[in-house]
Structure to design on (264 residues):
């Protein structure tokens, strides 16, 4: 049986820890920008996870294409989220959510 | 005595794993969201290095893409846009059950990971060829590509709308 590469093992652990930190950030804040940043941590963890699993399975094209789309959509998501935050800030004058 | 290439690769991986986790912890604990957004750039850079280090021949292409598009565009956009707000200080709230829930989420996530990856037949990924990548993108993934292009176009329009004064 082929041995699992050390880097892939650590990547799975790091991705899990990043997800935990992201979930902690999501629950521990009322600031909308910090909530957005915490969701970005989870996004980064998921992309690392895609590559870690793909390096185990011997895939190179699928994770590349998948992650290119994911990052492109993340860029779109950040801009849309930011537009919403600006509208919220103009109406309420604060970045805190109830 | 001397480090082999694998040892060096493992050491770099460990160093950047620590950097990624430290950046993530700084993001969720920082009192100023501007510094948290800057820290997100360090997280993005660390993730790019980790991905490249998993298999340099196969994944360095994406790593460059991650640095250019994610760190260079998304995080810089986020950091620069934050200047528009006054009062970037975060009011701290401490949810008592947040550490427990995040720990449970991590345990559940890791269990699913272990279960789903235990049956994978391990093999090394081949080096991607740019021409094949482009051909696959156009032939198999044309619809997501169109959605992405439309998404980025609306993002551009939205950025212009944001920059306008009322």
């Amino acid at each position: 049986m082929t041995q699992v590469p050390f880097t892939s093992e650590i990547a799975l652990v790091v991705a899990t820890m990043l997800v935990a930190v992201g979930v902690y950030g999501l629950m521990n804040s009322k600031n909308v920008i910090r909530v957005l940043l915490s969701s970005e941590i989870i996004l980064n963890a998921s992309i690392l996870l895609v590559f870690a699993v793909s390096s185990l399975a011997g895939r190179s094209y699928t994770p590349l294409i998948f992650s290119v789309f994911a990052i492109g959509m993340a860029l779109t998501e950040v801009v849309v989220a930011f537009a919403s935050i600006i509208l919220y800030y103009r109406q309420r004058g604060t970045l805190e959510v109830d | 005595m001397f480090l082999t290439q694998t040892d060096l690769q493992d050491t770099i991986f460990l160093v950047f794993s620590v950097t990624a986790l430290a950046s993530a912890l700084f993001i969720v604990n920082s009192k100023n969201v501007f510094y948290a957004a800057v820290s997100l750039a360090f997280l993005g850079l660390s993730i790019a290095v980790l991905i490249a280090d998993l298999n340099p021949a196969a994944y360095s292409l994406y790593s460059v893409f991650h640095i250019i598009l994610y760190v260079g565009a998304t995080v810089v956009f986020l950091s620069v846009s934050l200047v528009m707000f006054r009062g970037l200080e975060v009011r701290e709230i401490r949810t008592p059950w947040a550490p427990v829930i995040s720990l449970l989420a991590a345990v559940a996530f890791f269990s699913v990971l272990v279960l789903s990856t235990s049956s994978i037949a391990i093999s090394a990924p081949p080096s991607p060829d740019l021409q094949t990548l482009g051909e696959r993108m156009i032939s198999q993934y044309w619809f997501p590509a169109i959605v992405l292009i439309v998404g980025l176009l609306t993002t551009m329009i939205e950025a212009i709308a944001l920059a306008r004064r009322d």
User: Anything to note?
Assistant: Chain A touches chain B through 73 residues (CB under 8 Å). Residues 36 and 81 of chain A are 8 Å apart (CA to CA). Chain A has a mean pLDDT of 87.
